Amino acid sequence: PRKIIIDTDPGQDDAVAILLALASPDELEVLGLTAVAGNVPLRLTERNARIISELAGAVDMPVYSGCDAPLRRKLVTAEHVHGKTGLDGPQLPEPTMALRPGHAVDFLIETLRREPSGTVTLCPLGPLTNIATALQRAPDIAERVQQIVLMGGAYFEVGNITPAAEFNIFVDPEAAKIVFGSGIDLVVVPLDVTHKALTTKPRVDAFRALGTEVGRMVAEWTDFFERFDKDKYGSAGAPLHDPCVIAWLLWPDLFSGRRINVEIETGSDLTLGMTVADWWHVTDRAPNALFLGDVDAEGLFALLTERLARLPLR
Ligand code: BDR
Ligand code: CA
User: 70: Cβ below 6 Å to ligand 1?
Assistant: First the structure.
């Protein structure tokens, strides 16, 4: 299996992404979860990461706590989407498993130095603070990363936190700039893709029909998460953003995209955190990312439901 580290700010959609990865041990070996501040403050995201691991039956999963604020800015959170805990919806148990001692950034650096070069993929599902801090502190790890597959940015679909920017990139644009300029092989799942992966009623009913605790939790999470997009945009359901990252690793044929240049706006207040994506190749700037544009949503949800049925692990 391919070795991955999931860097995350759970978040109901982060939770589903983590469950999908843990349900796919033949293809993916999750070396650890690194929590970062984003949707909610760090003390909640690291707690949520443990709750999700326990729900999946992965009680030995290494979970590390990381950066509690962006590199240079004040933290912006998204309780208006995810609720006060970040995982609002179902009643959740207190986690019993402990955090691993040490900082997430040290775990990232040590793991990348220890594992054979080119064998560890990073999957950031939140602001890029932990990843950028690791790259700044240990520039030698850049060439050791196999790939970064991240949820962030937007092109045609533009913003969900400002008119120009997607949340993960907006929260820590300086960190995003470091990652996009790192020379590491990048795959980017922007809002253009995730807004096609909507949790419609039949899709959520299918989670519930699994008849398991995981199925029920995922259904209740997505029910809660939906109200934001339904109320605000009249959308048919909520975009299941972060699971698309894991889905791309499992079934890349469900997606299509283009290798293009993507730069991050860090100067302008008006368009802060915008992913300036050269989709039409109108500049001679070298491509630095595979920027996805489309997904087969039916296929995605069918496979997601099939995988979630395998949880909890025994
Ligand atoms: C991203 O922001 C968060 O609210 C979600 O978890 C996702 O990672 C979507 O913009
Ligand atoms: Ca997230």
Answer: no
pLDDT digits (tens, 9 = 90+) for 28-76: 999 999 999 999 999 999 999 999 999 999 999 999 999 999 999 999 9
> Is 195 designated active site?
no
Please give the average per-residue pLDDT across 226-245, as a whole number.
84
Answer yes or no: is the C-beta of 241 below 6 A from any ligand 1 atom: yes
Q: Does residue 7 have its Cβ closer than 6 Å to ligand 1?
A: no
Contact status, residue 87 vs residue 51, Cβ threshold 8 Å: yes
Atom of ligand 1 nearest to the CA of 78: 4
CA of 125 to the centre of ligand 2 (A): 4
As a three-state string, the secondary structure of the chain is CEEEEEEECCCHHHHHHHHHHHCCCCCEEEEEEEECCCCCCHHHHHHHHHHHHHHCCCCCCCEEECCCCCCCCCCCCCHHHHCCCCCCCCCCCCCCCCCCCCEHHHHHHHHHHHCCCCCEEEEECCCCHHHHHHHHHCHHHHHHEEEEEEECCCCCCCCCCCCCCCHHHHHCHHHHHHHHCCCCCEEEECHHHHCCCECCHHHHHHHHCCCCHHHHHHHHHHHHHHHHHHHHHCCCCCECCCHHHHHHHHCHHHEEEEEECEEECCCCCCCCCCEEECCCCCCCCCCCEEEEEEECHHHHHHHHHHHHCCCCCC
Q: What percent of the chain has pLDDT over 70?
A: 100
Ranges 22-26, 46-50, 196-200: which has the least confidence: 196-200
- Complex confidence, ipTM: 0.99
Write the pLDDT tens digit of every residue in 269-294. Answer: 999 999 999 999 999 999 999 999 99
Q: Which ligand is nearest to the CA of 39?
A: 1
Which ligand has its closest atom nearest to the C-alpha of 158? 1
122 pLDDT exceeds 80? yes
Q: Enter the pTM of the model.
A: 0.98
